[in-house]
Automatic annotation (TrEMBL):
It holds the Pfam family NTP_transferase. GO terms for molecular function: transferase activity. PANTHER family: SUGAR-1-PHOSPHATE GUANYL TRANSFERASE (PTHR22572). Residues 15-237 form the Nucleotidyl transferase domain. It comes from the Bacteria. Signal peptide: none annotated. InterPro entries: Mannose-1P_guanyltransferase, NTP_transferase_dom, Nucleotide-diphossugar_trans. This is Nucleotidyltransferase. Keywords: Transferase.
Length: 240
């Protein structure tokens, strides 16, 4: 059972990107969306929901695509009281297009954004407060890692604004983008962005030098189940 935090985050809405195909997991997982890959007989998505609820997230907007009916049925059966809105892409829009579509459904002016195949147990209270204090367009949670080549690196300036994004290659150490954000909805929707685009490439990496983008270091538990090795690690490490 998740240990629930008694404080309420100043941001209580979350977008969860749950439309991933899970192509690299096909050798170990049935043909389901990545977020529905089972970990101890529960979809990985259940762990993400429990984590977000523990930080006072009250409303969930799910971005769905591939085999969306599987997720819809699961949420209906196992989370009947969850305050959830399901946004289904008629065609793949990329991470940016998916977030943009979901942001049109938000009630507040700031939202947490999480990936459906990544669990990063960063402190959402800290994320939200720093985001609001800086009046940031986007605030990224960054995970320190060692000896890796699967992720690019984010560098920060002394004032914690983003200095640069570096490409994927081998790094002895560095800060990676943990895939958990606080986003100013109106600022994001006002950007001149196409219907289909990558949030990482076409928004973060293209605009960080023109917008207020903050990075916060969070040395918390992180797992991305996008490859079989880490999916198997999730089986050893996670419980709910």
């Amino acid at each position: 059972m998740a240990a629930y935090n008694t404080l309420t985050s100043p941001i209580t809405e979350c977008v969860i990107l749950a439309g991933g195909l899970g192509t690299r997991l096909r050798s170990v997982v049935a043909d389901v969306p990545k977020c529905m890959a089972p970990v101890h007989n529960k979809p990985f998505l259940a762990y993400i929901i429990a984590y977000l609820e523990s930080y006072g997230i009250e409303r969930f907007i799910f971005s769905l695509g591939y085999r969306h009916e599987v997720i819809t049925q699961y949420l209906t059966m196992h989370f009947p009281r969850l305050n959830a809105e399901l946004v289904v892409e008629e065609e793949p829009l990329g991470t940016g297009g998916a977030i943009k579509l979901c942001c049109e459904k938000t009630a507040g002016n700031n939202v947490i954004v999480a990936n459906g195949d990544t669990l990063f147990k960063a402190d959402i209270h800290v994320l939200a407060k720093i985001h609001l204090q800086h009046r940031a367009d986007c605030t990224l949670t960054l995970k320190p890692m060692h000896n890796f080549d699967r992720y690019g690196v984010v560098e920060l300036k002394e004032d914690d604004t983003v200095k640069s994004f570096k490409e994927k290659q081998f790094y002895k150490e560095g800060l990676i983008n943990g895939g958990l954000y606080a986003l100013n909805v109106q600022s994001f929707l006002n950007e001149d962005l196409p219907q289909k685009f990558s949030f990482e490439k076409d928004y973060l990496e293209a605009l960080y030098h023109k917008r207020t983008m903050i990075g916060i270091l969070q040395d918390a538990y992180f797992i991305d189940i996008g490859i079989p090795e880490d999916y198997e690690r999730a089986q050893r490490e996670l419980s709910i």
